[in-house]
Amino acid sequence: MRSTSSTYRTSRTGRRAARTAAAVAAGALALSLTACGGDDDKSGGTGGKSTESGSSLTLPRLDGTTLEVAAVWTGDEQKNFKRVLAEFTTRTGAKVTFVPAQDPIVNFLGSKIAGGQPPDVALLPQPGAIKQAVDKGWAQPLGADARSELARNYSQAWQDIGKVDGKQYGAYYKAANKSLIWYNAKVFENAGASEPTTWQELLTTAQTVYDSGVTPFSVAGADGWPLTDWFENIYLSQAGPEKYDRLARHEIKWTDPSVRDALTTLAQVWGKKDWVAGGGTGALQTSFTDSVEQTFTGGDQPKSAMVYEGDFVQVNIGQTKARVGTDAKVFPFPAAGDTAPVVTGGDAAVILKDSPGAQALVKFLASPDAATIQAKLGGYLSPNKNVPNSAYPNEVQRRIAKALIDSGDDFRFDMSDQAPQSFGGTPGKGEWKDLQDFLANPSDVAGAQRRLEADAAAAYGS
Q1: All residues at 6 or more sequence positions from 137 whose CB lies less than 8 Å from its CB, including other chains
Q2: Spatial separation of the C-alpha atoms in residues 364 and 342, rounded to whole Å
Q3: Most exposed: 18, 172, 428, 439, by fewest CB within 10 Å?
Q4: Cβ of 35: how many Cβ atoms within 10 Å?
């Protein structure tokens, strides 16, 4: 969804994970999302302690301390995070102010730092942004207490994603399961459509929905990042984990046949204008928020039946008044190749002004106590393995969270988040713009590849 440098590497386990590991993770996701009957997993079986059961987390008293925390979060996401910050204030006495940031956040932080007013902590949405902050001398390493909290609560892969040159700079507070397709349950019921598990089945389901009189997909083309996520899921499934990692590092070119294959597959949806709400032109004017609204407003005659994006779609669904798990249901992104994909994203807490207060806040954000508060409020997913599964407010979220934790280290982080910001994380430029152009003309696969490679080569300096 947004940036990193060419020197970034995924975790050791992530690099060596082969197709079989991806298959296990994808299978766990599919099983957990589609399981019917039986008791929900509400036991909090990961073994963590919620705030209700009594916390062992020790935080210092920080009376008189003032802190600023910046993040590109709005609406309910921002409001719910402020509840977490309020709990930190209750426990420590520190006054914490949330600073709304603009995207890309690295540019926003650069302006704040140039003006002599950096926030104490920033939530960065890309591994590449963390590295940029380190390279510019902005980011400060996490102290022993915060690192210890991370080690207790996170798998090695999630710890490693927050490291630069072996030092821990980021604590991933928020995760995203980005291998999901949400659908209007009433439309599927009326059409007699079923949840697909393969790409070919997805095309069949789309045709069934179309024949019932509803446009199958809403595509958020106005925002470039959802388009990169579409591509990444198809590419990971078809090309496999090793090639995914190599393309993320620009060790293979975007003119590679594997990219051609993924774009050709993607064009099977994007190239059918009657399958996309508003056609290509309309999709390019459709924001991410609009794409969700098009799918879950209008009763059983919405503008679209399905929308692709991560677990965070639930927040937007809630704003349409549709009920998650009843009106709005979800299935794993179908396998376009040998295995179904498991793509993740996330936001890491990074210290910009080192102080006891900033270190304590990041320690708190790395604890199950903080994540449990926001998990209960909905629309949030934590990579913290000690957050009780019972904290999530509905069956769909509990299953998505369990699938993420059960995947362990066998996942792939969002590819565009691993690219330099100028290629993978800037509106109107690089991959975002190139895929918007491809959405407008899905028949020009070769042209899209050439543009992607030219922009990637310029950004990676190769």
Answers
A1: none
A2: 28
A3: 428
A4: 12
- Cβ proximity of 30 and 195 under 8 Å: no
CA separation for the pair 170, 168 (Å, rounded): 6
In 334-381, which residue ranges form alpha helices assigned H by DSSP? 356-365, 368-377
Separation of alpha carbons 288 and 419, rounded Å:
21
SS3 284: coil
Segments in 213-309 forming alpha helices (H): 224-239, 241-248, 257-270, 279-283, 288-296
The SS3 assignment for 446 reads helix
| Amino acid making up residue 304 | S
Angle at 162 between CA 173 and CA 311, to 5 degrees: 40
Residue 415 near residue 228 (C-beta atoms within 8 A): yes
Do residues 182 and 329 make contact, with C-beta atoms less than 8 angstroms apart?
yes
Cα–Cα dist 242/229, whole Å = 18
- Between strands 66-71 and 121-124, the pairing is parallel
pLDDT digits (tens, 9 = 90+) for 73-92: 988 899 999 999 999 999 99
Task: Say if residue 104 is preceded by a cis peptide, omega within 30 of 0.
Answer: yes
Which tens digit of pLDDT belongs to each residue from 12-71?
Answer: 333 333 344 444 445 545 545 644 333 333 333 333 333 443 468 999 999 999 999 999
Which of 37-41, 275-279, 419-423 ranks highest by mean pLDDT?
275-279
**CA–CA dist 90, 120 (Å, integer):** 19
* Statement: the pTM of the whole predicted model exceeds 0.85: no
For the chain, domains (ranges, CATH) are 12-176+348-397 (3.40.190.10), 180-332 (3.40.190.10)
How far is the C-alpha of 233 from the C-alpha of 441, rounded, in Å? 20
241-248 helix and 224-239 helix, angle to the nearest 10 degrees? 140
